[in-house]
Design a protein that fits this description.
The chain is mainly α and 115 residues long. The protein has a single domain (6-99), classed as Winged helix-like DNA-binding domain superfamily/Winged helix DNA-binding domain (Arc Repressor Mutant, subunit A, Orthogonal Bundle), CATH 1.10.10.10. 40% of the residues lie in helices and 7% in strands. It is built from 5 helices and 4 strands. The strands form 2 sheets. It has a two-stranded parallel sheet with strand order 1-2. Strands 3-4 form a two-stranded antiparallel ribbon.
Length: 115
């Protein structure tokens, strides 16, 4: 990123704070960067940044799916890196823990079992 904007700097800082094995949605990265509602900006920053030193593979769609086309080199690499950090991926999706704090999940998820 040549001459990054303040928003881009904030997004990169939020990405660098992600811990090993932590996966978040693009929108959560934006929120952590102080830019709620700017998930697409996060995607643009990742698409144009030199991501070699960023944990890009820890960022997923809000529903826990990998954004790359299944079977693509990027998809395979993201799954490999997530597995290396102990993150389970099944059919291109990480478990529901990713979306548990979303507004939709809070409003529409079934109640916890009394079990």
């Amino acid at each position: 990123m040549a001459n990054p904007s303040a928003n881009e700097i904030a997004i990169v800082a939020a990405l660098r704070r992600l811990k090993r094995g932590e996966v978040v949605a693009y929108g959560e990265v934006a929120r952590r960067a102080g830019l709620p509602g700017r998930a697409r900006l996060v995607a643009r920053v990742l698409a144009h940044a030199s991501v070699d030193d960023l944990p890009w593979y820890r960022v997923l769609r809000a529903d826990g799916r990998i954004a790359f086309a299944p079977g693509s080199a990027e998809f395979v690499e993201q799954v490999r890196r997530l597995h290396a950090e102990g993150v389970s991926v099944s059919d291109g999706r990480v478990g529901t823990a990713l979306v548990r704090n979303s507004l939709d999940a809070l409003l529409w998820a079934p109640p916890p079992s009394a079990g």
